[in-house]
Known about the structure:
Blueprint: H1 2-13, H2 15-37, H3 49-73
Amino acid sequence: MKEKRQETLERITSKYGTQLCMNRSMQAEGSFANIKEDMEFRRYLYRGKANVTAQSILLAIGYNINKLHHKIQAERTGQHLFPLKQTV
């Protein structure tokens, strides 16, 4: 377990890992905004942890399929959403 943790830490703290983290952090807030606005999601329809988790998973799947569809239509598959930023 310690070996895996060390390996993961090295990967995350590498120059490329830092670039990916910065890129992902910018994209996360946009995803929630798109789900709320574009998909008109305002509240969970069911109660309970299992039901909320299931509905969240379905929303995420729908969002990812929609995103993939738009990438395929624009012939942008295999590319990052944003170019990777350089770290200092």
